[in-house]
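Morning!

This is the sequence you dropped in the shared folder:
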Amino acid sequence: MLALIDTHHHFYDPQAHYYPWLNDAGFPPHRYGDHAALKRPYLPADYARDTAGVNLLGSVHVEADWDPKDPVGEMRFIASLRQQCDLPSVAIGQAWLHQPDAASTLEQLAAFAFVRGIRQKPRANAAPGGPPGGMTDAAWLQGYARLQPLGLHYELQTPFWHLHEAVRVATDFPDTRIVINHAGMPSDRSEEGLRAWRTALAAVAAQPNVAIKISGIGEAGYRWRPDANRRIVCEVIELFGVDRCMFGSNYPVDSLCAPFQSIFENFATYVADFSAQERAQLFVENARRIYRIPAQRIEQQQG
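The structure's back. C-alpha cells below.
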C-alpha cells in the first residue's frame, strides 16, 4: 500500500456548525462547479472509508471556511475530533490578517499545540489584470508580520496571477514560510494559460522560504484527467524540486473529481521514475518536516 501523509484535507459538520459555502442558500458555485454533494458532514469516519486503500501515516486539516466571525471555534472543533481518533495530526487555522482583531486571533490559534499555520484567501481579481490584491494592503502585512514570532506559517490560496505579490511578501519576510495551496491554481488549462501559470510559479519558486502542495488540481466540468494533470504535477516538481513539494488530497472537495485512492495512485504513477528517496520526500518526509509532525505519531499510525 502507498504510504503517505495527506497534507490537505478538511473535516466539517455543517449540521452542527456554520460554514457559509455549505450552509447559505445561493452561495456561488465552487470552482469545480456544483458542490451540492459536499453539503453534508465529513468527519474522521468518512475520511477513514475514503483512505482505506492507502497506508495513511498522518494528515493535515486545513481550515474549511468556517464561520469567519469565530475562527478560533473551528480549532476547538478539530481538538475534539483529535481526542476521539488522533486525526488530524496537525491543522491549519483561519485568520483574517487585515482585521483589527488579527493579533488576538493569531495568539489564540497558536496556543493550540497542533496548529502549524493559518490560511486566508487574500482579496483577488477574478481574472488577470485589475487592481492589486490583498497581499499588498498595509493592514494585511501588519497581520502577516505576526506569524513568524508565534511559530506559524502561511498557507496561500490565490489565483496564479497574484503570485507576483507573494514574491514580494516572501522577500520582505524571509523567515516566514509560505506554503502555496493547490499547485498555484492552474485554472486556465489552455497553452497560453499554462504558460502564464508556469511563469508566475517560477518567480515564487525562486524564493527559498516557499514550498508548495500539489493538491486540488481538478477541473470544472471534468472528472480527473490523468494526462492533463501529469503535466501540472511534473512542472511543479521541476520548478520547486523534490524537497519543497508535497501531495494532498483536498478531500472531500476533490471527491467531485475522483476517488481518494485514484488521486494518489495517479500521483504515484507520475513520479514512478523518481528514486525511492525522492518519492519518500514527496509523499511523507517533506510533510513531516514542514508540518512538524512528530515521528512517533507516524510510527503509531504504521502500527
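Headline: The longest strand covers residues 55-62.

More detail when I'm at my desk.
O.
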